[in-house]
Amino acid sequence: MKILISADMEGATGVTWPADVLPGTPQWERCRSMFTSDVNAAVLGFFDGGADEVLINEAHWTMRNLLLERLDERAQMLTGKHKSLSMVEGVQHGDVDGIAFVGYHTGAGTAGVLAHTYLANSITGVWLNGTRASEGLLNAHVVAEYGVPVVLVTGDDLTCADAEGYAPAARKVAVKDHVSRYAAVCRTPARTAGDIRAAAKEACALARRAAPLAGGPFTVEIEFDAEHLADAATVVPGVERTGERRVSYTEVTMYQGIRTFKAVTTVASSAVEEQYG
Ligand SMILES: [Zn+2]
Domain with 28 in it: what CATH number? Predict the structure, then answer.
């Protein structure tokens, strides 16, 4: 049994503030240790449950956050960018039986600790075939094309509630309870490590590769916080303006859907202005 862990940081234990997840800050240095604790707990739980192989794919920002030297020696870690499937890189080789979304968060424009979809502020909403989409929902559709079930989701309590929508069978662990975008009631790393390890062990029972799901076509609509970002995004082939601050595109597969999304966010982020006013 091979498990892939997609590891994002905003939903990690103790994280509640942008500097906590901004590489190079003292807060990030401290929080990456708690992030590593969450991921390692999942690794231990999956091996407890019978996994033969666990691959961790770093999915946050620079994709260089986890402390490799603190991970269980049976695990392997894919670190750095660029990767064709970004947050779920590694799922496409036909050998993964289940995927865990560790440290995930809710989507842009919704409640949740550090809620966003790829871009922290510039994107105010994403919809997939009319349903408001978090990164978890988008990536769940990507991995379904490879027949890989989402078996475990960790993050704040609202992230777990969001995951009920796209992975109802998956085990969920809330490492903190949302109070506001920048505040949460946090449980300690010792407590959350125990919870995650136990849930990952149980989640192994859900890890069973299925037939690839062809669920397309996928129409993705993106709302920005400024008109010129929508304007800029239309240089990406297939992306059309659907409103003053909105663009939309349609792809047959979610493989292409997430790659086009990445292109849109890359172009839009390059068009964000300096602060003035
Ligand atoms: Zn992130």
Answer: 3.40.50.10780
Q: How far is the CA of 60 from the centre of ligand 1 (A)?
A: 4
State the distance from the centre of ligand 1 to the C-alpha of 63, rounded, in angstroms. 9
Ligand 1 centroid – CA 20 distance (Å): 11
Cβ(238)–Cβ(261) below 8 Å: no
Distance CA 121, CA 115 (A): 9
What separation in Å is there between the alpha carbon of 32 and the centre of ligand 1?
12
CA distance linking residue 85 with residue 156, whole number of Å: 24
Beta strands in 27-160 (DSSP E): 53-58, 76-78, 98-102, 123-128, 131-132, 150-156
The pTM assigned to this predicted structure is 0.97
| 36-73 confidence digits (pLDDT tens) | 999 999 999 999 999 999 999 999 999 999 999 999 99
pLDDT attached to residue 204:
98
Q: Tell me how far the alpha carbon of residue 10 lies from the centroid of ligand 1, in angstroms.
A: 5
The amino acid occupying position 195 is D
pLDDT tens readout for residues 128-166: 999 999 999 999 999 999 999 999 999 999 999 999 999
**Structural domain harbouring 226:** 218-270
Last residue of a domain, one of 160, 185, 206: 206
Going from the Cα of 174 to the center of ligand 1, the distance in angstroms, rounded, reads 17
Q: How far is the CA of 103 from the centre of ligand 1 (A)?
A: 8
Q: How far is the CA of 109 from the centre of ligand 1 (A)?
A: 16
Residue partners of 27: CB distance under 8 A and separation at least 6: 17, 19, 20
